[in-house]
Amino acid sequence: MRELDRDALRFHWKENEHSPLETLRFTRALFGLTCSPFLLGGVLECYLEAWEPKMPELVVELCKNLYVDDLLSGGVTVKQAQYRKEQAIEIFDDAGFTLHKWHSNVPMLEGETESKDTDLSFAKQQLQQSGEAKTSLLGLGWDKGKEEVKVKFPTEEVQPTKRGVLSKLAKVYDPLGLVSPVTLEGKVIFRDVCDQKQAWDTKLAGPLLRRWQKWEQSLPTEVSVPRSITSFREPLLDVELHSFGNGSKLGVGAAVYAVVTQESGTMQCLVAAKARLAKGGLSIPRLELVAGHMATNLLTNVRNALDGLPISNVYGWLDSTVALHWIRGSGEFKQFVQNRVTKIRAQSDVVWRHVSSEENPADLASRGGSVNGSTLWWNGPKWLANREEWPPNSVTSACPATEVEVKTIREVLSLAQPKNSSDRVEEVLEKHELKYALRVVAWVTRFIANCKTPKKLTGPLTAANWRT
């Protein structure tokens, strides 16, 4: 810390119980202060900017894959990953940061490089130990041997109360939404509990209690999913992203799938999904449009996360012809529909197509259910990788359900008559108040009368002049 900044890090210290109270100052930045994450981020950004002219591509990769003090990166091939690892170590060593706790699905990449610090403390030695088969990736369990990530469910039993239901739901950590159909069932139960306006610690009873117990007993200990979206360790030739959406009275869901083409073959799998409770009072077509909006947002997030991969085409799939007609069509709609249609159309490169409800994997996300053994959920429709087997893209047309949301445009018809420019009195009445106009007319009338008779009228206007 700079000398002039150290007063902000003063603290009291007593060597022992009888020693006098001293005021000391820290000379280094501390871990655990409110400003510590900001200071770390600022230092890293400063050093990476200094290295950018030397290694621009690698610095961009590091900036994109830094999560506070964790670096999550890799390569298409082992050789590329090894190169990135060596260069990352060089860059961070220049800033005084020692990268450790290496984990990889390739054991040869987990070895620690020779450290400049020959006198390692016990804590550093423990941190540099790796090679365990199971670890975690930003909170998600990762089995490096099987190359799988795991979503874990809490196994401890909770009291069947409103507080217990919410507590168990909150303990499911699933940032990619891989088991969102399972958690949606629990969210539906929690919403029904809230609708009954029960106290937080009042025990459930009747049908709600049976539903909760049935859902709790059906939960698996964990769900394992392949981590990689590719099958082979070789360059990617092409990547297509397909986003499915569906809405129901229970919930709204979306799921994004990747079709990856490599020289040795093609693979399709689930990348990310999302499910949330449906808002009450909305019609099914509106909920389907909300699902299309959710599918668009999720597709955009996935595409940004996979930046750098050869993504050629992106598609959106809905089983609602009404929502598709709104997205594809033109014209003005009511505010709710118009706002979402505008946001969906903003992603102009997304091609929207129709899929049947039976082959829409997002249907499970919108209604809830088990994902174990569901091929449709984990891999999407079997025809997804073969364009020749795609269902025909139905042509949508206007119907009563679509016309309900069409904005009514009221036209005002204005009739105008040609103005008679010779009517000077009308001009005076249009431009001036009535009292002023009457006074002008009275003076004009007197002038005309004076012109016709030798007896002239003089003086101010009288009541007789106003009446004439």
What can you see in these coordinates?
The protein has helices at residues 36-51, 56-65, 78-94, 122-127, 162-170, 180-195, 207-218, 284-305, 321-328, 335-345, 362-367, 375-379, 400-403, 424-431, 434-452, 463-467, and strands at residues 10-13, 22-25, 66-67, 70-71, 134-137, 140-143, 148-152, 222-226, 236-247, 251-262, 265-277, 311-318, 350-354. Residues 115-128 have low confidence and may be disordered. 37% of the residues lie in helices and 17% in strands. It is built from 16 helices and 13 strands. It has four domains: 31-113, no CATH class; 149-222, no CATH class; 236-403, Ribonuclease H-like superfamily/Ribonuclease H (Nucleotidyltransferase, domain 5, 2-Layer Sandwich); 424-467, no CATH class. The longest helix is centred in the middle third of the chain and has 22 residues, at 284-305. The protein has a five-stranded mixed β-sheet with strand order 11-10-9-12-13. Strands 5-6-7-8 form a four-stranded antiparallel β-sheet, with no helix packed on it.
Helix percent reads 25-40%
What is the oligomeric state here?
Answer: single chain
Number of domains as seen in the coordinates: 4
> Termini, distance in Å?
98 Å
Number of strands: 13
**CATH architecture title of the largest domain:** 2-Layer Sandwich
User: How would you sum up the global shape?
Assistant: extended
CATH homologous superfamily heading of the largest domain: Ribonuclease H-like superfamily/Ribonuclease H
Q: Which fold name fills CATH's third level, the topology of the largest domain?
A: Nucleotidyltransferase, domain 5
Class by SSE composition: alpha+beta
* CATH class assignment of the largest domain: Alpha Beta
Give unreliable regions as ranges: 115-128
User: How much strand content do the residues show?
Assistant: 15-25%
The run of helices and strands is: EEHHEEHHEEEHHHEEEEHEHHEHHHHHH
**Lateral arrangement of strands in the main beta sheet:** 11-10-9-12-13
Cα-atom Rg, whole angstroms?
37 Å
Count, helices:
16
Chain-averaged pLDDT: 86
